[in-house]
Each structure stands twice: as structure tokens, then as C-alpha cells.
Amino acid sequence: PANGRAGRGAARQGKMAAAGRWRAGLALLAVALGLGGTGAEQTEEHLKREHSLSKPYQGVGSASSGLWDLLGNAMVMTQFIRLTPDVQSKQGAVWNRVPCYLRDWEMQVHFKIHGQGKKNLNGDGFAIWYTKDRMQPGPVFGSKDNFLGLGVFVDTYPNEEKQQEVRHAGRTPFPRQRVFPYISAMVNNGSLTYDHDRDGRPTELGGCTAMVRNLNHDTFLVIRYVKRRLTV
């Protein structure tokens, strides 16, 4: 991902994780469909079980499963994996142990975010990672900064807008104000720093608003990298 080629070269290990520095409890419900190209005009779907999570989740994070590691406050239940409780200053993650060498791939994630924060906003959010480094806690939604690869961020708190409200009280509103929760993507070659105070604006590839908190149904997120094109 660092050079636009998923699963090759410098991007030696493709990893999936969801993490958050502190935020509402989130349940990660299902993960991962790999795509293997069969020709220039078509793509055949193959479920890559070594990169997949599916119910029931018994054994996830144990030495016997061999495929997934848990980090921080993540907890495995039969029907879901809870990354954090609805308590401040918590973080949790689940990381795939198996390197991904696919050139083209698609990842599907079902999740729910619930919390008691005001105006349907609290905590930082969570991220889905396709990176060389894994199991390294840090300030970017619970994982390390200056990563090598791709991060897709589901941001549930407007850090920049809150700061601008204080600085520009009584003045013209800050331009290009986002509506949160907000989903964005970032590719890093290891030299870029995620600007937490500005919600990642300087390095984002693109983004959009997504109302994903406190819903009765699952949210279905698809991340696809095919023929050097990233689609979320």
C-alpha cells in the first residue's frame, strides 16, 4: 500500500485490525473476503479463511487458533468481538497474524458502535489497518503513527471543529466543516504523521459522513483494492 501495490514488496504483511484510543464500545462482527485476479477483464472471488473472522468466535486470540491476536481491552464473545467498553481511556484491537500477499483484495466488515456520549458523539473512533506493522499501540486510533500501509478511519469525534469553536467564537465558522462520524482513508510510506488535532485532514485521500453510531442494525463496510484502485 505504501507504493500503491497492495500485498507486495514493502507491504510485506497485510494486517486487519480495529482499534481506538478511547471511545464507545464497538463490536467487530465479521471480516475479510480476498480477491484473486484471474485475468485482465474479470476478478474471481475466493474467501481467504486465513484472513477471515466469522461466527462463532471461540478461540480468537488464543495460541491454539494461530490466526488472530487480541490487544488491549478487546474481548471475545460467541457472537461478537468487543474492542472496548463504553468507558474513557480504553483501547482494543484484533490483528491478523498471517501475511497477505494478494495483489487485488476486498475486505468486508460488519460492526456496531454504541455509547452514551452527548449528541451521538464521543471517543475517537476506530480504524481498519492494512499495514506492515502490527500489534503496536499508539496515538492513531489505538495504533502506531508513521505506519507503512493503509488506514481507513471511522472518526467519531470532531477534534478540529471543537478547537475552532473556541478560537473563532463569534467569528465566521471554520470552512469545510465536516459532519461526524466521518470515514476517511490514508496511505503512509512511514514518513507521514497523522494530525490528530486536525482529524487527519492534511493526509486524507478522501472521506465522507457516515451515521454509524447507536443504530439497531449492523453497519456494512467494504474496502476494495483492485487494479490499483482503492474503493471504500
UniProtKB/TrEMBL annotation:
GO terms for cellular component: COPII-coated ER to Golgi transport vesicle; endoplasmic reticulum membrane; endoplasmic reticulum-Golgi intermediate compartment; Golgi membrane. PROSITE patterns: L_LECTIN_LIKE. GO terms for molecular function: D-mannose binding. It comes from the Eukaryota. Its main location: membrane. It is found in: Membrane. One of its GO terms (biological process) is endoplasmic reticulum to Golgi vesicle-mediated transport. Keywords: Membrane, Signal, Transmembrane, Transmembrane helix. Residues 45-232 form the L-type lectin-like domain. Residues 1-40 form the signal peptide. InterPro entries: ConA-like_dom_sf (IPR013320), Intracellular_Lectin-GPT (IPR051136), Lectin_leg (IPR005052). It is a single-pass type I membrane protein. This is LMA2L protein. It comes from Nicator chloris. The lineage of its organism: Eukaryota, Metazoa, Chordata, Craniata, Vertebrata.
